[in-house]
Every structure is written in structure tokens, then in C-alpha cells.
């Protein structure tokens, strides 16, 4: 019988701005020859407390310090040389070991859902621990608020391995959970013109901004943007509107107050360059993933993907008018500087990889296409993300062999399904290691089974009337206490 896979994509909820692909929650077959993740559980007592009670002093400190702006004027300016000091891990081909600590700062409308899927599958396969949003009904870390330690669900002494759902960058608490010494910080950017168009239209900004009835809402908005003080109250009701200007730098944590300050933006970009080990570029997605694979010392099969959460072609504004393009650039000058900077560092990194990179890239593309052919039916499939909104979907081939099927399915599984699945997974792990509270039902758990220390009561009046009490009463104390 035909196994038709229904996939739901896309969708913005006012709170979470997450895209939905709906599919079942299944585990990957653990075929990997990966080193077992070392972890010890020393206590599960945390279970009984509310999260707020169990934040350690260190966590509280990390949490209370919100990252606002970093004074990096004391840091050296020559960043390229600073970057090149990092050991080129990939070159020691056989000797490096896979990185299992990754913070992916998930930016909006940049192809980030596909990266999240890659990280979800990898972490699931290796039983890594995901940092998940604390609120069960949410799939973001209270975005657009800056990330805090208290926004994440308890980790029960499992060390944090991966964070890959929407969280706004905040250095201190993120460094607390993902110490820089053994973690990799990664993110992805996209050409600000297409990214902004995608944010504006996918998130339906025209309506809350009052440009819905214009023939060209985006173009008109950019010609007559309301002042910040008029947009600010709208942001409170439509959270997505926090992305109304420089959306990528917003996700990366820059305050609005610096959006028109070129000194601050340049400094912040330099700061980000130090914080992030890899900034990927959507327009060069496969190259990005290959850099990622080499940075993390993963295998090619770990980075295979299908594009997730893509808008239908007809919904994409195919040709953006030249004037609108220029206005997008002008409105988002800071994001444009960000993109230009990391576009250059990206290609420097690619060049530094040498000729083996292009060769591996060709192999990667072939394997990716082969997997697509094995998994997916040809043609366009639509799925309803939420009422009336359709996005690109996939349909699984009928005759996919069993051993491949799980992989194919997981590649189409969206981040919401994964968050739900990981919540269940960690709960099950915790249940397994928790002492079952059934000692009263255990027939062997009875003190009568031994008799060495049997109770031998002193029965008064049974031949012991003149025996002295075992413990004499402290007379003096008794008298002193009762009399005032
Ligand atoms: C920034 O750092 C420099 C060098 O350490 C220092 O001289 C300057 O006062 C700092 N600025 C602020 C605003 O803290
Ligand atoms: C992950 O956990 C499952 C279930 O406990 C186990 O069967 C599997 O071997 C584990 N995989 C790895 C790579 O540790
Ligand atoms: C721009 O940012 C820099 C760096 O934080 C700051 O020193 C300066 O006062 C800012 N300029 C304005 C006009 O706010």
C-alpha cells in the first residue's frame, strides 16, 4: 500500500515564528560507528524542583548579566590572523574527533531550518543532549527576548550538547551552557535583499504595519517607513515585527539603538567574528555545510539534507524591483555590512581548504542527489502549514527500502516534531535512571529477614521492677527547666 508522507511546512505563529513540518517521531537507526557519548548522571533530585529553584548560583549570575554591547576596543584589530591561529582541524584527517558541542544561532529565513534538521538528526543518532525551550508549548527560547539560562528546560546533569532552535544571541548565558573551550558556535546568513523580502512577506508584515492595501506593500513601506516610536508598540503585539529592520543582526543580538551607528555596527561585527567559529552563507549552502563538516570533524553522511521550509515558488517575489532592492539595502545597511563582512571571511575559509575541498564538494553533491532520488517522489507537493498557507512539501517514494526509510523520514522531519521527540526522549532517560518508588511492594524489603539486632523490649512488671533504668533521667536539667 502506498506510503504517502504528508509534510507540513512553513507557518509563522505570532510567538514562535517557527516553521512546521509535521511527521512522526522516529529514531534513526544507530548505524554510526561513533564513539559513545560519555555522560554520568549523579543526581535526578532536580526533578522534584521547579526550574527556578535549581538554577545554581553560577547560572543565576550568567542569567542576570544580559549582553548589551561589548567593548572590544582593547582587542587586536587584525582579525584574519586571529582566526588563522585556530588549528585547522580538518587537515588532521584521521586524527580529529567529532565535536559534540554545538550552538547554532538560528537566524530567520536563511535556510536555518535545514541546518537545524541536520543537527537534530546527528544529535539523535549519537544520543546527545539538546538544550530545549523550557515552556512546553514553545519551540523557541522566548524569542525575541535575549537568551537566558532559565529559558532552557532542565538538563538533569546531562551535559548540554546542541542548541539549534530560535534563540536571540546573548553571550554570557550561552557561554555558560556552551563553554567556548569545547563548543563550536555557528550561524548562517543570507543575502539581505532576499532575506528581507522573505521576512517581510512570509511574516506578513504589511498587515500590522498598515500597508496591506498598497499595490506594493514592501516597496511602499520602504519609501515611507514609520518612525521607530510608531513601530515599537506594534512589536509588542506582533513579535515578528522585531525583525522589521536588520533582522539578522537582531537575531545576533544587536540593540536597535546601534542600528544607525556605523562605529557600533563595525565593532559588533568584529565581536561576532570572534564569537562564531563558522558563519555559513545560504547562497553557498553546500560549501557552507562542507566547511561545517570539516570544522566539526563529522562525516559526509552527517550533512546530507533536503531543503526544508521553503515557500512555494509562486509566493516568492521572483523579481525584486531595482529601486526596492536599493531601498532594502538602505533600510538594512547594518545587515548589509554584516553580510559583506562574513561573505569575505567565508570565501577566505573556503580558499584555505585547498583543492581537496572542491573534490569533496562534488562527492557530496552526488551523494545528496542519490539520496533524493532514493527517497523522494518527483513533482511538486503542497502542504498546508496553517489555514490557507501552503509551502513546499515532499512525498516519500513507495518503495524505499526499510533501512533507508527512517533516514528519509527524519530528513523531512521539522524542528517542532524534533523538539517534542527530544522532550520525550530525555524524560524516558530520566525515568530509567530514577529510583523507582516501589520499595513497599518488594517482599524482600522486610527487616524480619535478619535477627541480629532484633528488638528486645523491656517489659515493666515482668520480673524487672528493681532494675535501674537504662538511661538515667537528668534530674538537674528536668528541675531547672520546669521551674521559672
Ligand atoms: C574600552 O576598553 C578600552 C581599553 O581597555 C578602555 O580604555 C575604555 O575605557 C573602554 N571603554 C568603555 C566604554 O568601557
Ligand atoms: C542511543 O540510545 C539507544 C537507546 O538507549 C541505544 O540503543 C543506542 O545504542 C544509543 N546509541 C549510541 C550511539 O550511543
Ligand atoms: C555609537 O556607538 C559607539 C560605540 O558604542 C558609541 O561610543 C557612540 O556614542 C555611539 N554614537 C551615538 C551617536 O550613539
From TrEMBL:
Region Disordered, residue ranges: 457-484
Keyword Transferase: yes
One GO location term (cellular component): Golgi membrane
Annotated GO biological process: glycolipid biosynthetic process
Swiss-Prot/TrEMBL keywords: Glycoprotein, Golgi apparatus, Membrane, Signal-anchor, Transferase, Transmembrane, Transmembrane helix
Transmembrane segments: 7-25
Gene3D superfamilies listed in its UniProt record: P-loop containing nucleotide triphosphate hydrolases
Database matches in Pfam families: Gal-3-0_sulfotr
SUPFAM superfamilies per record: P-loop containing nucleoside triphosphate hydrolases
GO molecular function: galactosylceramide sulfotransferase activity
UniProt membrane topology term: Single-pass type II membrane protein
Cell compartments where the protein resides: Golgi apparatus membrane
Family assignment from sequence similarity: Belongs to the galactose-3-O-sulfotransferase family.
Protein name: Sulfotransferase domain-containing protein
Species annotation: Pocillopora damicornis (Cauliflower coral)
